Amino acid sequence: MSLVPFCASLYVHIPFCAGACDYCDFYSVPAPPNDGRMDALIDALLLEGEERFRRYGVGQVPTVYIGGGTPSVLGADRMTRLLGGLAAILPGQPGEFTVEVNPESADRAFLEACRAGGVSRISLGVQSFHEPSRRAVHRVGEGRLLTERLKLVAEIFGDNFSADLMTGLPFQHEKVLLNDIEKLLVYKPGHISLYSLTVEEGTVLAVRPRSALPPADEADRLWIRGRDFLEAAGYEQYEVSNFSLPGKQCRHNIRYWRMENWIGVGPAASGTIIDDEAGTGRRHTVCPDVDAWLAAHSSATAATALRSPGASGPVPVTEEFLDPPALMKETLLMGFRYTNGPDAAAFRRRFRCTLEEAIPQSLAAWRNRGLLRQDRAALNRDGLLFLNPFLLDVFGEVG
Length: 399
Ligand code: SF4
What we know:
Blueprint: E1 6-7, E2 9-14, E3 16-17, E4 29-30, H1 37-56, E5 58-60, E6 63-68, H2 75-89, E7 96-101, H3 108-116, E8 121-127, H4 131-136, H5 143-157, E9 161-167, H6 174-185, E10 191-196, H7 204-207, H8 216-232, E11 236-239, E12 242-244, H9 251-257, E13 262-265, E14 270-275, E15 280-286, H10 290-299, H11 302-307, E16 317-322, H12 324-335, H13 344-351, H14 355-358, H15 360-368, H16 387-398
Parallel strand pairs: 1-5, 2-6, 2-13, 3-4, 6-7, 7-8, 8-9, 9-10
Antiparallel strand pairs: 10-12, 11-12, 14-15, 15-16
Helix pairs in contact: 1-2, 1-10, 2-3, 3-5, 6-8, 12-16, 15-16
């Protein structure tokens, strides 16, 4: 029997937002602050978290991430209750504990409740300060509130915060984007995510395209301009869309990119548990319907819910088995997002072959094009711009 405690990160999904952004494809429902479902949500999340820890025998949780949706819509009191409940079920203090917030609800009381409850890092949804761009996609919150909230986050968390920016928004051009980045840099975030707007199927934006959206090649150019600006300001790209100051990378997300165990709790959350010996994984995905999920939790007695968490139990959770080819594809898909590439030692341990043995043709072809790093199997700075065609080659090769 192993003496090493079983290690898994924790992701908690808060499925509520103050509004609905037109490009959003995350699971969330608009809810006012007095929505009674938020109180029931906290109890159910804690029950579900406790059950998952017990089920998988988790003895170590290196990172926790509360995302959404918009966790800050919970308000300070509910957040205090959630954090207190998590502290009681976590096996120890995680090395990194992040909470996502949006400006309209990230007030001083909420941020201080996070700090007091053990949160070490905030992720703030900025996207853009430019009002026409925000309005065009129905982004909740006003740009002018952003500066106030950025100041507060920096006061309470120092540089231990991340800010999301978006390129390719309607009415955005280079001057607007660079102005957004400059405004953000005033608050010295340790971490910045620079996302390119994508029109995902099923979103409002896909149904009602905006004429003010920049054409695709201009959107790409904008993102590259943003990347260059961030790098010149001292932020190092360490993933396709993520940049940080030294030592400020997001450890939780790195665990995803390296396909290390994590547990998902809350409506639409998913988690993956890896069996390195067998080269397989088990994925659990919680029902993406907050009302059905809450009803299942409330109709089950706590004891029943704890005993029957699987697909056949009262709380709807689907389970999927990842066989070695499926897990290898995911490991490659996630790993090549990261500038260090997939973890070579973990890959060999998991699949009994090296990356060079698994995808020799793709690595040779992309190395010849000068788009791989010299020192390891990873895309270089230019190569990351072609991640999707690279992955198509990789997937074609692994079958
Ligand atoms: S705030 Fe975030 S999660 Fe909520 S609707 Fe907008 S993009 Fe989606």
